[in-house]
Amino acid sequence: MEKFSLTDIKKMNYSDVYHYIYSNEKTSKQSIASALRMSLPTVTQHLNDLLEEGLIEKCGYLKSQIGRKAIAYRIVPDARLAIGVEILSSRSFITVLNLYGHVIDRTKINLQFQQNESYFKELSEFINRFISAQPVSEDQILGIGFAMQGLVSQDGTEMIYGKILNCTGLHIDSLQKYFKIPCRFIHDAECAAVSELWDNEEINDAIYLSIGHHLGGSIILNRMIHNGRTGRSGTFEHTILIPDGRPCYCGQKGCAECYCSIDGLLLKGEELENFFAEKEIRNPSVLNRWHSFLNDLASFLNNIHMSLDTIIILGGHLAPFLQQTDLNYLHREIRQITAFPENEDFIFRGNYQENAVSRGAGLPYIQMFLEEI
Ligand SMILES: [Zn+2]
Fold it and tell me: What does the pLDDT look like over 191-206, one tens digit per residue?
């Protein structure tokens, strides 16, 4: 049997008290003591410690069965914050998250990505000004996650593949030197999947496919992102869908990226909103293009599903435009082309959020804090 020291038990009790308050909007000392089977003096001691550290606060009274009102406690959601930054070629989105993972502030900067000092300096100064405007001190900010379009080393310090932004080899030190707060890179597709996981407790295993201007994938196993041996797991976008097809930025021809991404769907200069407005009024050429897109997507999803028999969640900027009729179409098409047709639906639309990627870049810091407390 594992042996725990007195300090370990104290730490576990402290953590249990915090987590109990975290998962209950408001609670009383008595409720904590009965739910956690702890003595009232033990709970009192941990409540006092948590109050002193500013992690919880008193918030009025709760009715109690014995008539006397009990003091209500709740966590201070802004006691710690995390920052998520989505870096894109011509702009960056910055979000601030509280301990519940809610976005409490956000901003954006139109700045052309360049792998040089003036870019890193301008971006960092902008983020630092934004952080200074937050109503917390710098040491309450847990970290800054930079969501990058590309593959990131396991420790989040280096871009191991970054052809979209042409930043392969970029080290986090280029940004870290401007911040006292810890920084790391995270693959953008992983960020969107993490955001989805945070909101949906029912997901256990899934493939998350982010359909944005570019395509990105993540494998979720046991509610964790499966990065693989070298961080390349889930890079379905560069599997060949049409041999010798359209040229891909990766150097190959016919990758799924060229057919199943928004860039693969739209014509040059076309806007997504306009495309779907035209589809709504049944413009024949747009409808044709949409069906051809769905057919390619069906082949692609079938290939993925043959490798990993889990549900597939479609997210990214395309998700809000996907209708149930489109998902039905994909299922029908897949049943016709697959070697192993199944009756149950397995493709779902994600809980799309405008800032899913930047939020997902900050969430790991919140998660880490909650695990360590
Ligand atoms: Zn490719």
Answer: 999 999 999 889 999 9
Interatomic CA distance for residues 46 and 75, integer angstroms: 13
Across the chain, the runs of DSSP E, i.e. the strands, are: 27-28, 56-62, 70-75, 81-87, 91-97, 103-110, 141-148, 151-152, 159-161, 183-187, 206-211, 215-221, 224-225, 311-315, 347-349
Distance 325 CA to ligand 1 centre (A): 29
> What is the distance in A from the centroid of ligand 1 to the CA of 19?
44
- Dihedrals phi, psi of 330, to nearest 5 degrees: -60, -45
Give the pLDDT confidence score for residue 279 in this predicted structure: 95
Of the candidate CATH numbers 3.30.200.20, 3.30.460.10, 3.30.420.40, 2.70.180.20, the domain formed by 81-193 belongs to: 3.30.420.40
Residue 228 has pLDDT above 90, yes or no: no
Distance 122 CA to ligand 1 centre (A): 31
pLDDT value for 64: 67
Reading the block at residue 163, the tokens are 């052809």
pLDDT tens per residue across span 79-103:
999 999 999 999 999 999 999 999 9
Fold of domain 6-75: Arc Repressor Mutant, subunit A (1.10.10)
HSE, CB side, 13 Å, CA atoms: give it for residue 26: 10
What percent of the chain stands above pLDDT 70? 98
CA of 238 to the centre of ligand 1 (A): 4
Instruction: Kindly give the distance from the C-alpha atom of residue 101 to the centroid of ligand 1, in angstroms, as a whole number.
Output: 33
pLDDT for position 253: 97
Same fold, 6-75 and 200-349: no
Distance of CA 2 from the midpoint of ligand 1 (Å): 50
Query: 66: pLDDT confidence band, cut at 50, 70 and 90?
Result: low
What is the whole-number distance in angstroms between the Cα of residue 231 and the centre of ligand 1? 16
Side chain identity at residue 46, one-letter code: H
CA 243 to chain centre: 32
